[in-house]
């Protein structure tokens, strides 16, 4: 959500900023803009639409200068338009500001500024920040930033430059991510690491309330008391290649194919010499675990679905009751959370505002927070007591795939560890499951060699208005995740139902030719699933089954079946979701939609 890049140094700022914004496209946006200071003073351009619109314009109207800021906007206040695109300026266009987040008291500030004679060109909340910089500017950009920060409330990552001071910019952070990239004779600030990785691997995250004063030779960070904070940059180990398409047509397809490696990396880094799981960043002791009387899993979207599968694993193996809650609902429900509760927060990005807010509420109530996240140093990781990093590598496509399967692995490993600590699993079963978990990576690699069946299904459903997914038990969670995948990128209405619940209402939706995808991988449920499939078949549904190899009963009632190799029932979600990912991918390609950047969606949702 909103991408930010700021640069000061010896290179052409426009080039650095545009290439940085390209790396942030995955965040989702609807307009893009840039401001550069050079010998002609402040120059800028901003347009509604893709970055390519801005880029094409800049080819004919290049901006010269070695300092600048650029932005991709995901609309909150005001429609996507040229006027509402960032940067926003003060009246005489000497100050430029870009912003990710929401200024909650902008109406109040706007009224005050209007009274002072300021005129507004946009409907955004951000424009008040540009005018505030103007109001307080007295020749010192940093001091002005301190004053502006004391006036604004909300969530923000803000960058500001002033034409009269073309050697510096300031960066303010509260709840929206900002990373500093330390170069040689040049420095960068951006919303995410890939934007700076072409130039430097030495980075540090800004914390809430911090302000960075950035020049070509130095970056000084100040805390809320305006004291200097010593930042310890860390070195990014992964390559930019990991954040590019690497020969695949789309990031989503690449990321689907990266799942076996993600699973391996997530498991293998956590095995000790004796074959036990060793969760380094989780400091929970046996005593801590014995104290927990319940677990809450809190997350959004796909991460929530991973949590719902995690519930099955934890309850089955460790016999601790688990409640799953959507993060945006959790904190308004006065949840049963206290110091005997473990709250597992799941977030690929580690920056999702709803999830972060839920984490803080749980912490306030005394819970122990364990986060599962893919981004080292993200806000959620930093605010948690314990962290499980999924080593999926950067996930760029808006539709989450490899983050999901590695989150499942995280849950299986956590569940196994809790079970061992609580003596609810014997060592034989423990090692058997670890063995099978490891094998899923190779099995998945094999499965991914042939996606012809998923392509066939995509051809069958691409022109349908609606599609239903069914499942029982843990398969119902897989069905939910498959339906989300299809609707978010192909825009086909897709819904999932507990197969046994269908007859209590939803079956009324089934008519001749309605496509139904029935997930049936649980050996104890096959017969019940077959009955539910018969029920929809009798009403004219065209049924595609997803089941385990050798299940001939399923084949006998479905119009088409996609088989996955048989593994322990508990682990099938790791494999069964993949045909669903591929069906969504191929359907979207056939419909000619933008797979990686679906409409209305952002990769990282940093507003509540
Ligand atoms: O970064 P997070 O895991 O916290 O994101 C949560 C959801 O926004 C995310 O999973 C979303 O549902 C995806 N677009 C699903 O593919």
What does this structure look like?
- The protein is 36% helix and 23% strand.
- By secondary structure, it is of the alpha/beta class.
- The chain folds into 3 domains: 3-240, Aminohydrolase, N-terminal nucleophile (Ntn) domain (Glutamine Phosphoribosylpyrophosphate, subunit 1, domain 1, 4-Layer Sandwich); 245-447, Glucose-6-phosphate isomerase like protein, domain 1 (Rossmann fold, 3-Layer(aba) Sandwich), CATH 3.40.50; 452-591, 3-Layer(aba) Sandwich (Rossmann fold).
- The strands form 4 sheets. Strands 3-2-4-1-10-9-11-15 form an 8-stranded antiparallel sheet, with helices on one face.
- Helix 9 links the parallel strand 16 and strand 17.
- The longest helix is centred in the C-terminal third of the chain and has 21 residues, at 402-422.
- The structure holds 5-amino-5-deoxy-1-O-phosphono-D-mannitol.
Ligand types: 5-amino-5-deoxy-1-O-phosphono-D-mannitol
- Secondary structure class reads alpha/beta
Strand order of the largest sheet: 3-2-4-1-10-9-11-15
Alpha-carbon distance between the two ends: 12 Å
CATH class of the largest domain: Alpha Beta
Shape descriptor: globular
Total domain units: 3
What CATH architecture of the largest domain would you give? 4-Layer Sandwich
- Based on CA atoms alone, the radius of gyration comes out at 25 Å
Could you estimate the helical fraction of the residues in percent?
Answer: 25-40%
Number of strands: 25
């Amino acid at each position: 959500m909103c991408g930010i890049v700021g640069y000061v140094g010896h290179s052409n700022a426009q080039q650095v900023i545009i290439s940085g914004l390209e790396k942030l496209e995955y965040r989702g946006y609807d307009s893009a803009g840039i401001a550069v200071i050079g010998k002609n003073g402040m120059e800028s351009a901003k347009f509604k639409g893709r970055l390519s619109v801005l880029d094409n314009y800049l080819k004919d109207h290049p901006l010269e200068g070695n300092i600048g800021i650029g932005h991709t906007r995901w609309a909150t206040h005001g429609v996507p338009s040229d006027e509402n695109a960032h940067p926003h300026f003060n009246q005489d266009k000497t100050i430029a500001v870009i912003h990710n987040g929401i200024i909650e008291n902008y109406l109040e500030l706007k009224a005050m500024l209007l009274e002072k004679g300021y005129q507004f060109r946009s409907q955004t909340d951000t424009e008040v920040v540009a005018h505030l910089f103007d109001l307080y500017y007295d020749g010192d950009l940093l001091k002005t930033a301190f004053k502006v920060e004391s006036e604004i409330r909300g969530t923000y990552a803000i960058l500001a430059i002033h034409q009269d001071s073309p050697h510096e910019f300031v960066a303010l952070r509260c709840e929206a991510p900002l990373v500093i990239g330390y170069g040689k004779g040049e420095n960068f600030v951006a919303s995410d690491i890939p934007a700076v990785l072409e130039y430097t691997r030495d980075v540090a995250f800004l914390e809430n309330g911090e302000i960075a004063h950035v020049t070509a030779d130095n970056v000084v960070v100040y805390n809320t008391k305006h004291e200097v904070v010593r930042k310890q940059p860390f070195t990014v180990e992964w390559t930019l290649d990991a954040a590019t398409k690497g020969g695949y047509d789309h990031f989503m397809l690449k990321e689907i194919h990266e799942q076996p490696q993600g699973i391996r990396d997530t498991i293998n880094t956590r095995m000790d010499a004796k074959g036990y799981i060793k969760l380094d960043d989780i400091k929970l002791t046996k005593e801590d675990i014995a104290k927990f009387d319940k677990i809450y899993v809190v997350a959004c979207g796909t991460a929530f679905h991973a949590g719902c599968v995690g519930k099955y694993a934890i309850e089955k193996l460790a016999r601790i009751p688990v409640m799953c809650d959507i993060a945006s609902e959790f904190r308004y429900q006065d949840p049963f959370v206290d110091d005997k509760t473990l709250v597992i927060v799941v977030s690929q990005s580690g920056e999702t505002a709803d999830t972060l807010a839920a984490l803080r509420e749980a912490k306030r109530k005394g819970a122990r927070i364990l986060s599962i996240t893919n981004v080292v140093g993200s806000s959620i990781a930093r605010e948690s007591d314990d962290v499980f990093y999924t080593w999926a590598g950067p996930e760029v496509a808006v539709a989450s795939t490899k983050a999901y399967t590695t989150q499942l692995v995280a849950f299986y490993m956590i569940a196994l560890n809790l079970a061992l600590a609580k003596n609810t699993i014997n060592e034989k079963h423990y090692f058997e499951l670890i063995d099978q978990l490891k094998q899923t990576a190779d099995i998945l690699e094999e499965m991914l060699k042939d996606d012809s069946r998923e392509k066939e299904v995509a051809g069958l459903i691409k022109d349908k208005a609606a599609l239903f997914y069914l499942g029982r038990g843990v398969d119902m969670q897989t069905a939910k995740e498959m339906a989300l995948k299809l609707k978010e990128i192909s825009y086909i209405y897709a819904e999932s139902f507990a197969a046994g619940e269908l007859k209590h209402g939803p079956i009324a939706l089934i008519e001749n030719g309605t496509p139904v995808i029935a997930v049936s991988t649980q050996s104890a449920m096959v017969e019940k699933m077959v009955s539910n499939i018969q029920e929809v078949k009798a009403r004219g549904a065209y049924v595609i089954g997803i089941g385990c190899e050798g299940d001939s009963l399923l084949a006998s009632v479905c119009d088409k079946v996609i088989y996955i190799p048989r593994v322990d029932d508990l682990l099938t979600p790791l494999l069964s979701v993949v045909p669903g990912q591929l069906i969504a991918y191929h359907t979207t390609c056939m419909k000619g939609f933008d797979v990686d950047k679906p409409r209305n969606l952002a990769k990282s949702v940093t507003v509540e």
